[in-house]
Amino acid sequence: MLEVHQLPGPALVELATLFIEAVRGCSLLSGKSLELFPTILTALATSKESLTYGKGELRGEELKKQLINTLCSSRWSHQYVIHLTSMFRDIPLSVEELQFVVEKVLRMFPKLDLQEIPPLVYQLLLLSAKGSKKNILEGIISFFNQVDQKQKEEQKDSESLDLEEATVPLDQLRHVEGTVILHIGLAVNLDPDLGKELLKYLKSEQQGDPGKALCPFSVTLLLSVARIHRFQEQVFDFLKTSIMKCFKDLQFIQGSKFLQDLAPLRNSISATVLEVVANSVFGWDHVTQGLVDLGFILLDSYGPKKILGGKSTEMVNGLSKTPAQQACNLGANILLEAFKVHEPIRNEILEQLLNRVITNAGSPISHFIDLLSGIISYAPLVLQNSSSKVTEAFDQLSFLPLATVQGLLKAVQPLLKISMSMRDSLILVLRKSMFSGQLDARKSAVAGFLLLLKNFKILGSLTSSSCSQAIGASQVQVDVHARYNSAANEAFCLEILGSLRRCLSQQADVRLMLYEGFYDVLRRNSQLSSSVLETLLSQIKQYYEPEPDLLPPLKLEGCILAQRDQIFLQEPLAHLLCCIHHCLTWYKNTLALRRRVEEEDEEEEEEEAGFQQELGEMLASITRRMIKSELEDFELDKSADFSQSTGVGVKNNIYAILVMGVCEVLIEYNFSTGNFSKSTSEDVLGLFKCYSSLCDILKEKGGKSKSPSANKIARSFLSMGFVSTLLTSLFRDCSQNHEESLAVLRASNEFMRFAVSVALQKVQQLEETGQTDGPDGQNQEKTFQNLCKITRVLLWRYTSIPTAAEESGKKEKGKNISLLCLEGLLRIFNTVQHRYQPKLPQFLQALDQTNEDGEEEAVDVNVTEKAAFLIRQFQRSLVNQISHAEDDFNSKEALLLISVLTSLSKLLEPSSPQYVQLLSWTVKICKETSLEDAPCCRGLLTLLFHLHTLIKSPVSILRELAQDIHAQLGDIDQDLEVEHQSHFAVVNTKTAAPTACLLVLGQAEKVLEEVDWLINKMKSHLGSEAADASQAANAAHPLEKAVILQLGTLLTSYHELVQTALPAGSCVDALLRSVSKMYTTLTSLIKYYLQACRSASGGIPGRLEKLVRLSGSHLTPPCYAFITYVQSETSIVEEKKKKKKDRMTAEVSVVMAKVLRETKPIPNLIFAIEQYENFLIHLSKKSKVNLMQYMKLSTSRDFRINVSTLENALEGQDAENEPDNNQSIASAQSSDSQEPKKKRRRKK
């Protein structure tokens, strides 16, 4: 080997040929002899003489190139591939030669056995030191991606065909992938340029198609590289943005049928990343830390955020999640799945999670709490080993906000059931908090103790379905009674009750929490009823007036506390009475059941019955006396002071709210226990009279104050279950026995309106928070059942008694009941889609009038059919409303009906005939109905666009609407009459601007966004390798056609709008901006074709030429004319300003501010047009097609000279000026300005 360079040239050629023939003929005994080949080639390369090779003579370097070419072109046996790759490291190679070698090796990958891939990859990575890093990485990633795809398909086939043998054993494949990833990780560590190249390659792929860049193998590779400190931040930033882009693309495509047909998303990013977690069980320890970091990065970046008003962007179980919510959800799933399969990282996940719960207390942390709950529910026994971390978190409870404490304790509740020590440490912390100086800490203590009482059942407590409650997430059922006897549990619960009794002397907020929690405690632990009832009885006695004839029956002065000049609520009396009522009702309902279940201790039963009887008598006495009481008895008449600025006013406000609350509680109590007697109904109306008179006074006094909250109805004390029962009784109960009693209540329209208003309030609360006040408010199942009942009643009431029929009767203050019902239905339909998406079939089944009970299970309910039936009812109502005379038209009802139809249309399957039917009905309404009501017009057009985009692109409708707007508002050239047949009657002089115009522009911009997205997609096809050039061209062809068609149709819409005499204001501003976007999109398309011409020799398609011609004739000239029109409007405003300089200066300055705002987009538009023309010139040169022949020279510039203005100016000048000058300027400018006029004539 050392003497090779001394051999003569022909001998070297012969040796080299011998090696190549040996490789071709597979006659090499081992790859060892190949070590001589690089030396021979190097000697040949340095040789100065011309040597004979084949039929010609070549010099050394050329000969070496030819030999390498011959070697790479010949067939390689799979056994020599690794040796040959290793050999090429020692050969000096040019860039082209290296690329040729790398491509040859990569083509050999599929022919090799899986076990041979890791050493070959290792050799390739060593070879990458010479260059061609991108090709090597791309080849490795695409190979493993294909193998993964093949393996998945085989798995699917084997599941369907029950095949046992797979060509690629899964565990072997995963171990090979793990080894390869380790090799690449080590190589990146040694050669940072390789890491940079990897990120650069994946970023370029991500620009066009993030799904292509992020396959399971590449994600795993990135997570492995993230262990290297210098790449950590870059890798996680890339993964985060790529995941977010995938979710945004998914949302974008789901909103448009046009995009779904052209560019469907094939890969789910969530499935890809979770597949990496599943694969990591095959010994991929180098990836686990990256998975944990990625999970927490997604949770931290995209979790719910605090927004203005203190509310948070909450996570909901609905399907219509935002991309940020989906990314956050993915982060939680990564951590949960990683926790399940990787034992070593469990402690770290738990520690980081608890740290975030405690340290992020100021911001929303529901996503962390949900994840913690999921982890604990999965493996409570495993987490017993980490109990010290949970106990440390308990020490921070007194410093955390109440919502965090409640969430955390609900999440760890399964642990408390199996760990005595954890429970003890929690009780110690809660006891300390009970005596804390901080109000929040004491509230947290109450919340904690109530949760313990709800979750530790004493044996012997009722286990009926009426007493069960779902707390937090799904819980692990652990029988604690096997280890701790019931006596210990009872002692434990009574001890907690003793601690809670101390709270009854604390602030109103603490007491309020206790009253709200007692009912749930009773339902879970019926054995505690005696203690709870006794506690409530002793508490109410402090405020109850025992004298049977004394008015008022309650001592309100004891409920407030005066400190210096300020007055506070001390006892939330209405909440106390509400708690007593619910506990009493529960006790009565379960007493008979308890007697049937088992024999009770008679003494205890008698004691409880005594409490129950005494409380019942108290409530009856309070009811009787409240009805007799006048407002003056509470010192609350119309002359009383209710201002918030004085002590007396604050006191009276508190008194009024307490009395109203007491009245509501008593209404519910009497109606529930009255058994439909006439006297009970009269009592209810008497209580309501007291409530409504106070409500009116507060509204009247509050109306004078400027605070918006003053006019809002106070939060009702009626429970949702009672509201559903009351509404059903008032509107649907036809029973003879109940008729007399209900007739009393039905006679009061105000009471019925009140009942519907409270239902609305409950639904709103459910929509905003996911739960309602009162018993069972957190029980999702019962709340859902009540919601179905309420919906059924409101739907019946609205469809049976039309608004017009109701209004024809006597006019009363307040809203019409049918209108309130409709408002309620709209809220309910939105809430169900938002909160109860999985239960939609049951909801629609419950509304079916033939199924009054709604109790049957919804089996195979066709959501589309049921929703279509509902939609037809509201369509009839809307048609009736529209067909009314103008005087009878109720704008508010029509708008609500349109909103209801919009909400229900989301339940229809876009491919169903019912959906198409609704769309054609909406088009018909818009075409035939001439509504002068702007909000209704906006609603109808929004519905039309919403329905249309899920069937096909709405560009044709936009064009027709633009023509209608042009016809209604007239042309910018006042001498020109627009002859036009109306398409949509809904567009008229009242609604054309700004309503219809702004909606059309908004929709046009959405179409432009879709087109932009598609152009980026087309650019990604251009970036494909030359080998796939024909395939890439075929993929891009339908996209190109669709993009040009969209832009062409949209261009004709803009052609109409820029010739429309739009009123100065928002429409002009929006149109100028929108046309600028149109030009920007056109420029993007031209850039794409410029890039296409550079990468391929093909010319530009004829349809692009047509589009450019259309833009030159139909868009640019009218745009400049429109700019002139806008500027002339501006000068008119300026003239008016000069005339009215002395008066109304403020008003004129507002107009001028608007004008300035409108003129700002003009330079941007001119710049966009010029950029478009600039790139057209470039494309013309590149494609050898003169595209600029269609573009006329523009005349509208800041420095243009307007002929008519100039002539007027010249007439006023002295005769001394040279006439030649004037004529030359005028003639030069007139020739320039003739073009637009000619174009105008063509339009006529």
UniProtKB/TrEMBL annotation:
Q: Can you tell me where the transmembrane regions are? A: none
| GO MF | DNA polymerase binding
Biased-composition ranges, Low complexity, are: 1220-1233
Which GO terms are recorded in the biological process aspect for this UniProt protein?
DNA repair
- Top-level taxon: Eukaryota
Where is the region Disordered?
1210-1244
FANCI solenoid domain segment(s): 1-188, 287-450, 717-944, 957-1207
Q: Which InterPro entries match?
A: FANCI, FANCI_HD1, FANCI_HD2, FANCI_S1, FANCI_S2, FANCI_S3, FANCI_S4
Using the record's annotation, list all stretches that form the FANCI helical domain: 193-279, 464-699
Q: Name one Pfam family in it.
A: FANCI_S4
Keywords (alphabetical) are:
Coiled coil
Coiled-coil boundaries: 587-614
The name under which this protein is listed is: Fanconi anemia group I protein isoform X1
Q: Which organism is it from?
A: Eublepharis macularius (Leopard gecko)
